[in-house]
Amino acid sequence: MAGKKGAGVLELAVLGLLHESPMHGYELRKRLNTLLGMFRAFSYGSLYPCLKQLLAKGLIVEDRPEEPTVPLALQSRRSKIVYKLTAEGKERLQELLTEAGPASWEDEGFGVHFAFFSHTRADVRLRILEGRRSRLEERLESVRGALARTRERVDSYTLELQNHGLESVEREVRWLNELIGRERAEQEQARSSISNMTQDQPREDDR
Description:
mainly alpha; Arc Repressor Mutant, subunit A; 3-stranded antiparallel sheet; flat
């Protein structure tokens, strides 16, 4: 199950990056390492099987250069291939960006979804942020309970580590609260603007 979730995160990351611009495999690997490396140890070996699957599904295409007259090594040819998103790939990306279930609240799933929030609907963004906050509040309760039970039985270094973990989660919850407040304010402002525009439009009997 974990592998399947990881594959879904990688698919979203690849499609999202290619939506920004077509890329060579090497450039894609570097961008994925920056994006996913914050949340897990990204394996380069998992990229090419993912690209192969996306090609087979018609979600991306290879833009191959003209075949050179002088044979090149397979690796150097591969490095010149540019991967591009297809229309089907854009549709699949939008599907993935509307998913706001538990997988998008976990550490790596949340990070990748958040990286593409500018392409995500406002209501979906809010659901993901609130889901992430709920997940972290559950984690806080668990960590606090563990601290209370083990405080007298662990050495000072282990206690410091547990306190550090607790502070990290508390800090992220505060950050999420700020983001959620901002999202709600922006959505309320957008609704208010639409309402005002509707009221300002002349009615049939006023013309």
